[in-house]
Design goal:
Elements: H1 12-19, H2 24-30, H3 35-40, H4 44-55, H5 65-69, H6 83-91, H7 99-102, E1 108-112, E2 121-125, E3 131-134, E4 148-156, E5 159-164, E6 181-185, E7 190-193, E8 200-201, E9 225-233, E10 255-260, E11 263-270, E12 276-281, E13 287-291, H8 301-306, E14 314-317
Parallel strand pairs: 11-14
Antiparallel strand pairs: 1-2, 2-13, 3-12, 4-9, 4-13, 5-6, 5-12, 6-7, 7-8, 9-10, 10-11
Helix pairs in contact: 4-6
Protein name: SPRY domain-containing protein
InterPro entries: B30.2/SPRY_sf, F-box-like_dom_sf, Gid1/RanBPM/SPLA_SPRY, Ubq-SigPath_Reg
Length: about 325
């Protein structure tokens, strides 16, 4: 029992420890309970730990509240991030459309992932030729140190992953083979920039056994699970929902980048119209699970955002 003023007699670190167990949405609601709760829930340390617990639990644990108050060092520069805004943004990233409308594609099976991966969408190829799939809403930037849009796919099988300029993409074509698309291909690690003959060696293979896979997976190599990420680094251009026309100030700093299993693969300058996540599954049984930010990213996107924007690995993708 708390005497002499109830909550006001609790030391702030203890109250913070109690609130540290709440989800972001519950934390927001608790802030309206009283003036004291409003003051405590405004603590950047509280929102830093809340965000880390929800979205960085697989990385190094953050210091305790008492350690933070004493000035303990952290991997991230706490003062450079808007932790409350970031936590609220990630909490609202669950698909706003029914699962059958979240992703295009005729010969794929789509369903929401189980509760332990809440908000993710599982996709499986059940047709014959390669099947392209496009997320039906443009990638929105996360409010990090600099605006960055990012998504990850858990790939099991032959696939290409990248960006396209609109919500429609021609079935039967891998991403990067058509104009207005950029695709990183798992069978040979090639990056295609708007044409089937535009491929350039870019990074490691993914989704298939690297010892047995050949281009176009003609040997039906054994499948292998990998996590592939694609992002848009807006740099100084900003992340407005109404991006600048290409060629205006800031466009030169916009790059697309790719990751594999939590490591940066490379980046390329892109046209400002490329805002839609796209991927293609190569043959029947190939699978992918899409994480738009509702779950933890394997790649440390927060640490990436506080470092200088990397130089492009390749030239501009138009």
């Amino acid at each position: 029992m708390v005497a002499h003023g109830g909550l006001q007699c609790l030391m702030e670190p203890l109250l913070l420890e109690v609130l540290d167990n709440l989800e972001a949405q519950d934390l927001l609601r608790s802030g309206s309970a009283s003036l004291l709760m409003q003051q405590v829930t405004a603590s950047p340390f509280l929102w830093f730990r809340t965000y880390c617990n929800c979205y960085r639990g697989h990385l190094s644990p953050p210091p305790s509240f008492s350690e933070l108050a004493a000035g303990a060092p952290t991997e991230l520069d706490i003062d450079r991030f808007a932790w409350r805004r970031m936590a609220c943004c990630r909490a609202r990233l669950a698909p706003s459309l029914p699962v059958e409308r979240c992703l295009s594609g005729d010969t794929v099976c789509r369903e929401m992932a189980p509760p332990e991966r809440a908000g993710m969408v599982d996709v499986e190829h059940n047709g014959c030729s390669p099947q392209s799939v496009v997320w039906q809403q443009p990638l929105a930037p996360l409010p990090l140190v600099r605006p960055i849009a990012y998504a990850e796919l858990y790939v099991h099988g032959g696939a290409s992953v990248g960006l396209v300029s609109g919500p429609a993409y021609r079935p039967g074509y891998h991403v990067g083979w058509l104009k207005g698309s950029l695709g990183y291909h798992g069978d040979d690690g090639t990056l295609f920039l708007g044409g089937p003959w535009s491929g350039a060696k870019f990074g490691p293979t993914f989704g298939l056994d690297p010892e047995l896979v050949v281009p176009n997976d003609r040997t039906n190599a054994p499948r292998k699970a990998d996590v592939v990420g694609v992002g848009i680094d807006f740099g100084d251009a900003g992340g407005s929902e109404h991006p600048r026309a290409e060629g205006e100030a800031g466009d030169a700093t916009r790059t697309a980048f790719f990751t594999k299993n939590g490591a940066l693969v490379g980046s390329v300058k892109v046209a400002c119209t490329m805002r839609f996540l796209a991927f293609a599954l190569h043959r029947r049984g190939d699978r992918a699970s899409v994480n738009m930010g509702t779950c933890r990213f394997l790649f440390d996107i927060e640490a990436y955002s506080q470092e200088p924007q990397p130089a492009s690995t390749l030239g501009k993708a138009s």
